[in-house]
Specification:
49% strand; 2 helices; 329 residues
């Protein structure tokens, strides 16, 4: 992308955000707020938002058409749930991260219980405290996922997590020594992949080969210890809009940070009514609604309402990119 194109994109984006009228609305209620909401996936075909409560553990479906939210647990599963993603070609099957397992579940989207169909792969079973955390599919349906270590230990000095790509039937290690594997986003036009290990407090960028899913040439895109030296938040989930701008959720930051990855600059911060902003996903018929998950972790006594709510933000005047389903085969 030449310099004039970069300047044009930046000016157009700034024009939009300067003229917008943001509206932040909770879509949950008191009974449906999460302890630790995470892993939002907006399914463009059904116009449903899927997400998890890691600690419950439970899965959710929000219908944009009706405004109803359906909640389910997974039969015989007590493991923490890191994410949920629909499986391509299936209307009632999903892949979830359940503890150490990438698991296929069956759920009709309304019943209070889902069932396990199969376990695709198990990772890091030798480390009982570790678990699968965030995950997402690249534009071609390949599943990228990562693990996190014991948060009661010093993960900065002793990171025990890994970052993987699922290559049926195995999990290929892409990166080791990960503290808390989190946000993922791809820009296929630029051939870039963006990744967050929350413990490092930065966003990393890689070269991305769309034909193979291979990533290489890691570098730091932006370091929040430098941009926000006085605020001890951790970057969490991440998404991307059609202009290639990144949206980063902040754990203990009470904000969403928007980044221009070409200029490596923060172009905007959206203040949220809760401290622990966990992840986000664009949705809606025009992909112009930003859905945001949050947490009341460890308890709502410490983080009072509306912590744990799911919000939708309208009036951004930008559109996201459609999220990819998991292509199992």
């Amino acid at each position: 992308m030449n310099s004039w194109c970069c300047i044009f994109v930046i000016l157009m984006f700034l024009r939009c955000i300067m003229s917008d009228e943001l509206h932040i609305e909770e879509i949950t209620n008191e009974t449906l707020r999460c302890i630790l909401g995470e892993g939002p996936h907006y399914d463009v075909k059904s116009q449903n938002l899927y997400y998890v409560d890691i600690e419950a553990p439970a899965i959710f479906r929000y219908s944009l058409e009706t405004g109803k939210i359906f909640k389910a647990t997974i039969k015989d599963n007590n493991s923490q749930l890191g994410f949920i993603t629909p499986i391509a070609g299936k209307t009632d099957e999903f892949v979830v991260g359940a503890g150490h397992d990438l698991t296929v579940i069956k759920w009709n989207g309304e019943s209070e219980e889902a069932t396990v169909q199969t376990v695709l792969v198990t990772v890091q079973s030798e480390l009982p405290i570790n678990r699968i955390n965030d995950a997402k599919c690249d534009p071609h349906g390949r599943l990228f996922f990562g693990t996190m270590g014991d948060t009661t230990t010093n993960l900065k000095d002793h990171p025990t997590g890994f970052f993987y790509r699922y290559d049926n039937p195995n999990a290929t290690v892409l990166r080791d020594s990960v503290g808390i594997s989190n946000g993922l986003a791809w820009d296929e036009k630029l051939g870039k992949f963006y990744y967050i290990d929350s413990v490092t407090r930065n966003v990393k960028v890689y070269d991305y080969e769309s034909s193979t899913g291979h990533i290489s040439n890691e570098s730091v895109l932006i370091d929040f210890a430098v941009t926000h030296p006085d605020i001890e938040f951790a970057p969490d989930g991440m998404t991307i809009d059609e202009n290639g701008f990144l949206y980063v959720a902040t754990w203990d930051g009470a904000r969403i940070i928007i980044i221009n990855p070409v200029s490596k600059e923060i172009v905007r911060e959206i203040q949220m009514p809760v401290d622990k902003v966990t992840s986000l996903a664009f949705g809606g018929p025009s992909l112009d609604i930003l859905f945001v998950t949050t947490a009341a972790f460890p308890t709502s006594d410490i983080h009072p309402p509306p912590s744990g709510a799911v919000f939708k933000i309208t009036g951004l005047n930008v559109k996201g990119l459609p999220m990819s389903e998991f292509k199992l085969d």
